[in-house]
Amino acid sequence: KGDFLLLILMTIPMYGALGLLAWKLSPNGVSLLTESVTMLIYGGLVLLFLYQLYHIYQVNKSIFHTPVPEIHRYKFKQVAVLNLAYLATFGSELAVVSMLPLFFSETFNITVVQAGLLASGFAFMNLVSRPTGGYFSDKLGRKLTLTICLAGLAVGYFVMGLITPEWFIVLAVLATMCCSFFVQAGEGAVFAVVPLVQRRLTGQIAGMAGAYGNVGALLFLTVLSVVSAQLFFWVIAATALVTLIVVQFMDEPRGQMAEVLPDGTVQMIDVH
Predict the structure, then answer these.
(1) Are 146 and 190 in contact (CB under 8 A)?
(2) Can you tell me the distance from the alpha carbon of 130 to that of 154, in angstroms, rounded to the nearest whole number?
(3) What would the pLDDT profile of 17-34 be if each residue is shown by its tens digit?
(4) Pair 177, 121: CB distance under 8 Å
(5) Element housing 255 (H / E)
(6) What are phi and psi of 168, to 5 degrees?
């Protein structure tokens, strides 16, 4: 029953992010939407949220009077932790990739094209860092790998907040790429856990965690619109530290998971 309430709680930020986006496009932001259209969007989001609440209850109402079979049970806190971890990792990646060229251009007084080429190192690390995050999750354990990645990206973003025009550009790019490694390895580590929470709900869990990446990007870019780039990086670092603490409440996946085969039989799968 507590997980039922946690599911509802974790649903709210997704609608809040859409409301925030509408506000940024409204006359209070960049004026791409009229006030009346914005209010219609707000109303639509409220109705959609209530509609989802109704279906959440319809799907889960049996838990209030009928015990759930052991093989179908899972802790929703596992999903909540992955949501926040992906907010801090992929959310920060989306936000930083969109602002980094301009940051380099203004900091080192170089052309936008040059800055874009330098900033591309942040995204380039994806080729090796995501698979590495998944690999180490298998070898070292899911919880430990997530902890290391979040600690690394917290330090990385703190260092990026220290970048000034006095830095050598090479050092700034290296600091960016090192930070990016931990960010994207953390993304791989998140999705190394997703299928181990509840196998039959893997798609829904992956979808919710993925949505939180976009929630994070919108939140971080909103922060950037009102603070300096230095403080923007430090806000992400602080978010990573909070998430690092939250990850310590995650249970390391172990034991067995149930897989219902097409013929209706149940097969137990070992989780390593």
Answers:
(1) yes
(2) 17
(3) 999 999 999 998 888 999
(4) yes
(5) strand 255-260
(6) -70, 140
Nearest to 83 by CA among 135, 7, 19: 7
Place of tokens 């310590």: 248
Neighbours of 89 (CB within 10 A): 30
Phi-psi region of 164 (alpha: psi -120 to 50; beta: other; left: phi over 0): beta
- Residue 105: count other Cβ atoms within 10 Å of its Cβ: 18
pTM check: above 0.85: yes
Q: What is the pLDDT of residues 183-202, one digit of tens each?
A: 999 999 999 999 988 888 89
Between the CA of residue 173 and those of 96, 131, 212, what are the distances in Å? 13, 22, 27
Q: How is residue 80 written in tokens?
A: 């909540």
The type of residue at 51 is Y
Number of other CB atoms surrounding residue 261 within 10 Å? 8
Q: Which residue has the tokens 């925030």?
A: 20
Burial code of 130-160, b = ≥16 C-beta within 10 A, e = fewer?
Answer: bebbbebbeeebbbebbbbbbbbbbbbbbbb
Nearest one of 135, 13, 138 to 83, comparing CA atoms: 13
